[in-house]
Amino acid sequence: MSVDPPGRAWAGITIGNMGEPPTPAPSFGSVSDKRDESRPPLIPIAIGAIAVLVVIGVMMFFSRGSGKQPATLAADPYAASLPISDISMSTADNFAGQQVTYIEGKVTNKGAKTVNTAVLQITFHDALGQVAQKENQRLMIITTREPYIDTAPLSSAPLKPGQTREFRLTFEHVSADWNMQVPELSVAKTSTE
Fold first, then answer.
1. What is the pTM assigned to this prediction?
2. Residue 63 in 3-state DSSP?
3. Contact call for residues 87 and 101 (beta carbons, < 8 A)
């Protein structure tokens, strides 16, 4: 029987010499060497940092928008002739499941002119009495109450001298800082004939 020298193939099998280093097993992951182990993974850290910055930016954008602090309108001389009374509030969920706040009341024309349009300034306060949200809305009068409340702009049925009309204001978003008390309402601008 003859013995093949070491390192030669025998029946399809190669036998290595004892003194040779073993053939390395195939690597299916990343090749690791000491330089890679000491360096932090930069790509995941960069992606995480960008995600955090985006979330902070979105939060800042929406927190600024929730204040809705428009510039105060110039005083309208006829506004004093339109007192607001019987203010009440209610909330309801809309079809999207979001809470909507309604403010209803009455406005009376105590002046000598017919009012075609009016803009109300609504100021919501926080627990400390500071302004949490301020916005302007057109006065929407209630046209029907049954089978549901329907509103229309005041221009659809102008308010004549001596008349009183019910109105409704709708707020799809109110600042989370609001103290849940009736906000301050005032007539900011009117259009008369």
1. 0.58
2. helix
3. no
Say which residue, 169 or 2, is predicted with more confidence: 169
Q: Where are the domains of the chain?
A: 9-67, 77-192
Query: Which residues in 15-36 are b (16+ Cβ under 10 Å) and which e?
Result: eeeeeeeeeeeeeeeeeeeeee
Q: What kind and span of H or E run contains 90?
A: strand 84-93
The CATH number corresponding to 77-192 among 2.40.300, 2.60.40, 3.90.1150, 1.10.3470 equals 2.60.40
Helix (H) or strand (E) holding 104: strand 99-108
- According to DSSP, the β-strands at 84-93 and 99-108 are antiparallel
Q: How far is CA 63 from the centre of its chain?
A: 7
Helix, coil or strand: residue 33: coil
Cα 64 to its chain centre, rounded Å, is 9
Q: Which residue has the tokens 């916005």?
A: 135
pLDDT of residue 66: 44
Residues 6+ apart with CB under 8 A from 190: 76, 78, 79, 82, 115, 117, 118, 119
Q: Report CA-CA distances (Å) from 66 to 87, 121, 140, 159.
A: 23, 16, 22, 32
Model confidence over 91-122: pLDDT tens digits? 888 788 788 899 999 999 999 999 999 999 99
Let me know: does 80 contact 191? Beta carbons within 8 Å.
Answer: no
